[in-house]
Design a protein that fits this description.
The chain is of the alpha/beta class and 420 residues long. The protein is 31% helix and 25% strand. It is elongated and about 75 Å long. It binds alpha-D-glucopyranose (GLC) and magnesium ion (MG). Alpha-D-glucopyranose binds next to strand 9. InterPro entries: HAD-like_sf (IPR036412), HAD-SF_hydro_IIB (IPR006379), HAD_sf (IPR023214), NTF2-like_dom_sf (IPR032710), SPP-like_dom (IPR006380), SPP_C (IPR013679), Sucrose_Phosphatase (IPR051518), Sucrose_phosphatase_pln/cyn (IPR012847).
Amino acid sequence: MEFKGSPRLLIVSDLDHTMVEHGDHDNKSLLRFGALWQSEFNHDSLLVYSTGRSPKMFADLRREVPLLTAGIAILSCGTEIFYGDTMTKDHGWIDIISKGWNRAAVEEVAEEMNLKYQCDSEQRPHKVSFHVRKEESVHTMPTLLAKLLEKGLDIKLIYSGGLDLDVLPRAAGKGQALRYLLQKLKAEGRVPQQTLVCGDSGNDQELFSVDNVCGVIVANAKDELLQWHADQVGDKSHIFVATENCAAGIIEAMKHFGLEPNVSPRDRTVPLSVHDKLVPKADAGAAAREVVEYLLLTEQWLRGDISASEEVFRRLKFGLAKDSSRVCAWGTIDSPHKEIENLQAQYGSQRGKVFHMWADRVRSMKLSDDSWLVRFDKWERSGETMSTPVFECLIADWSNCSVILSFFHYQRLEYTNGSM
Ligand code: GLC
Ligand code: MG
């Protein structure tokens, strides 16, 4: 479920070529952003994806790359809004954008002009999508627009990536969907302290014109968005054009706009360690940080990215309660401590391989002044396979500087590349 208070930070990000760098097979910057978000923001902020993808293609992407679960997903180019883990659809939004929309009339014109449809999954109730080459778009777009307006249709055309043409109700689109969401949050008394929008192509343009947002155009942005930015007159200081690509550009923008903290745990060279936190602050954020850092340290150990010294291994073991036990959903009890002992011999076993571990949906509940119950999905990617069990652990004893992770419940809601 998405964070229910007033978000300290609201990030609204496009996915393809913004959050997700398709050429980066190691998903380095996506994992950097994920670790930063889970450890520092997930407990009091809200992550929203805003993508042109349909629900099907959104699900496809989630099976392919280490994408965090967002609190809200705005799909199909701002024509469908879904909330929380359960992806509950916003029907109020559908009612708003349905007024005056006539899909059949759009299709009629498209046939008359012999336009090339995108695949079936990308045709949605309030989105008709085509492929139009850049050279042709100069002629096709004004002609299509004129014909649709002639029919009295209240629509808009959006051209992205030098190929994709979407016809949407004029009341829809990424910008309108965000305005709707912000109004909704306001009505609930949950105005975000700060909002950062992130994009790379034509369908993201509207996001940058929403009131009170700052925005980042990632370095790898498409011509149409860069051209739009160049054409804007007046103060553009709320838009930052990054020098880095995709999610790395988002982190760069967080630094630019002073949105803190903005150093990912994955960018710290010193092995992450509970030793660093002599007086750990017991709050929901600190509990989440422990989980993220613990998984990251395990990943680095197995990949051999950190030194194989006794000291590093001690750090790995340090946070884990000696007597911690794990009660599995199917009734067996095992010892995470023993598992960690076994890790010693596995140092570097994943070196040079595609291997990552990360936490998603980290949620903490305060039990007492120095203890938190944390639930999270522990993801592991090995080659092409991604899988996750769900964990619960108790984090306690902050005062002693021995932050203790005591895994006591382990539920294998097995998920391997899409199968639940
Ligand atoms: C995504 C969608 C596609 C759309 C494009 C631009 O790629 O799958 O249908 O045209 O975004 O909005
Ligand atoms: Mg994009």
